[in-house]
Amino acid sequence: MTLLNDFHFLYLGFHIHLLLLIISVEQIQGGDILAAVHAFRGGVHPKHNKNTDVLPSIKLDDFHEVEILLHQHIGPPCRSVVKPGDYVYVGTLVGAADHPMAVPIHSSVSGTVREIHYVVSPNGNPIEAVRIESDAKFRVDPAISPPHVETKQDFLDMVRASGMVGLGGAAFPTHIKLNPPKGKEPDVLLINAAECEPYITSDYRQMSEHPDEIVDGILEIMRWLNIPKAIIGFEDNKPLVHRIFTHEIAKRVYKTGAKLPIDVRSLKTIYPQGAEKMLIYSLTKRRVPPGKLPHDVGVLVLNVSTVRFLGYYMRHGIPLTRRRITLDGSALNAPGNFNVPIGARIKDLIDAAGGTCEEPQKIIMGGAMMGVALDRIDCGIIKANNAILVFGSKEAKIPAESPCIRCGRCVAVCPMGLMPTGIDVSTRSRDVEGLEFFRVMDCIECGCCTYSCPSKRFLTQSIKNGKVLVRAELTRRANEKKLLEESEKKASGKEVPSDLK
Amino acid sequence: MNTITFALSITKNILVPTLIMLGISSVLGVLILVVSHFFSITHNEKREALLDALPGANCGGCGFAGCDAYASYLLKPGSDTSLCSVGGLACATEIASILGTEVKSREPKVAVVHCQGTRDQTQPRFEYLGTQSCHAAHGLLGGFGSCTYGCLGFGDCIAACAFGAMHLDNGIVHIDRMECTGCGQCVKVCPKALITLIPTRSTVEVRCRNEWPGAQTRKNCHIGCIGCGKCVRVCPSSAITLKGSLAIINQELCIHCDACVNSCPTNAIAYLPLGPRPEKT
Q: What is this structure's pTM?
C-alpha cells in the first residue's frame, strides 16, 4: 500500500515538473506555446520537401525578353498604356485600369516594347501581354522616388500605385484589403508566414534575407490603419524564423527604447495551416463564419512577402517588378530560390535552374497541393506566382480512381468540418439539395480530402463541380422569385377570384 | 346433450371470433372516417387540370423546379401562361382555357451548339487526365483544346437534357432538332456558353463563339469565325454584326437568303443540321 502511494507521489511530481516546463518555455517564447498545440481540426501532413530552404536566393537578370501579362490580380484586366517601340525603364507603367479593383502593372526590365499580343489566361480567355526586349541594364525610371505619405488615403493610394497584390498566391488587390468597410476596422494584424505548401520556400528565404523590411512593412500598416497589435504566425518546421524576428524586434527595441507590439508565434506544422480561416483560428481563436471575410471578425491577414514588399517600397519607391520564386521538383537539376523580374519566361527560369534531368511530365504554377498545371512553358511568371514545380514521371503520375470504401478519412481531415464523400456522391447524382445539406459552398478547396483518399478519388474536383451546380440552382431560384413577384405585382390591381384564394 | 355441446362449440369457435372481427373492423372504420376527415387534402380541380395539361417532363425549362411548381405558380393571378416550351402552343391554349385567360404563346425555339470544332478541325493543347466533366476541364486553363472557346465534349449538357435530344460525335455535341423542345437546360450547364436558343424557323447560324483575333483563330481551328466581316457586307437585311472578331446573327432580322453562308471563307456560318421542328398541335 505504501509502495503504491509512493508511486502516486512520483507521478504527481512528474506532472508538476511537466507543467512548470511548459510554463517556462512559454515565458521564453514570449507567446503562448499552447497555441501551437491547439490547432484547427483536421488537416494532413504531406511530405514537406522543403529542399531549397537553406539555399540563398539567386538574383537572375540575364533574360533576353520578358512577357508581362496585363491581368495579374483578381478584378478586371488592365489595358496597355505603351506602344510597340516605346522605351521603358524598370518601374514604368505598362498597364492600367480605372476600376477600383484593378491594380497597375509596371515594366520589370528596361528596354524596348516589342509587341502587345494575346495569350491564353488561366481561365482560357485571351488576355493582352506586353513583350519587352531587355537591354540588360535595369535602369530604374528616373521619375521614381520614395513615396511621401501623410494621411491614410495617401497610404492606400500609394499601396495601389505600387502595383501590390497578395503575393501568397491569391493575387487579391492589397489596397482593397487594407480598406475594410466602416465599423469593421481590424484590431489585430496577422502576418501569414506559415508557408504550409510542400516544396515552397520563397517566403522563408524572404524572411531570412529581409527581416528588417518585413518589420518596417508591419509597422507602416499598423501606423496608418491604427492597428494596435500584430502577430507573425509561422509553422514550427521553420524554427529559425522565431530567432530571426525576435532578433530584429530586439534590435529595434534597443534602438528606440519603446516596446514593439509584434508577437511571433509558432504554429503546428500541418497543412493547410496557412489558409486564411485556419490561420485566424490558430492565432486568435476567432472563427470566420461561412461566407464572411476576415474583417468581419476584426482581423487583417497579409502574407509575409506582401508586407516585405511594402517595407521595400516605402524605402525605395520601386513598384512591384521582382519577386522571389521557388523552383523545385524531381525533374530539375538544381532547384533553388530565385529573385526574378516579373514576366520572366518559365522556360528561361528552368534553364537558369540547371535545366531538366528528365522529360518534365507536369509543370505546376504554385504549390503542389493547390497549384495549377501549365500547358506551356514560354509564358511569363505573374506577381502571385510563388513557385514553379517541374515534376518528372514519378511525381506526375495520376492514380486511377476506384470506388469509395467509406473509410471516412476525408471527413477526418477536412479542416472545414465537411463530408467530402457525401458531396462527391451528391455531385455525381446532380443532387443540389444534397449538396446544400453538405454545405458544399464552405469548402476552401485545400485538397486535404483528395490527398488522404485511399481510393484516389478526385474529391476536390468533384466539390468544385458541385459548387457550379449549386450556383446554377441559386440563379434559378432567384429567377423563380422574380417571376412570382412579377405576377403578384401584375395582380395587385385586380380582384382575386374566390376559387383561387 | 350433444346438441347443447354443439351449440356451445359453434358459439365459441365461430360466433365469438366473428363478433371480435366485426368489432375491430367497425372501430377501424370509424378511425378511417375520422382520419380522412381531419387529414384530408383539399383538391383543387384547376390544379389537377393544369397538371394534366402540362407535359410532365419536369425538365425545369419554365424556370420552376418542375411541372408541379409551375402549376402552383399558374394558379396565382397575373401568372405567365406561356413559359412551357415543351408543350408549346397546344399546352398554352389548354392552360388558358382552364384559367379562362387569353392564349399567350412564345415563339418555339431550339437549342443550337455554336461550335463545329470536331477532333479533325482542332488539336489538343495538352493531355487532360482529371474528372471527365466540362466544368472541371474548363477550370483548368479553359480546357484542353487548341480553341479555348470550343466544345469540350464531356457532355454535361447531354446529362442535363431530359429529352435525349443531344449526342456526342467526334468530340463535340450535336443537337437533334426533332427531339429538342427548347427548354434551355443545356444552355444553363454549358461552361463555355456555347449553346443558345434560336427560333425554330432559323436556318443558318454562326457556329462559332471564339473571341480570339482572326490570325490566332486560324491556328486554333480550321472552321472558326475569323471576323473578316464578309457576311456583314453581303447581308441585305443587316442582321449580322461584328462583336470584336466574331460575327453574330440577329435571327429576328434574318430573311433566310443564305448569302452569308455562301460568302463565309471558313464555313463558320453553316446551315443548321435539320429543318425546323414541326409545331406539335
A: 0.82
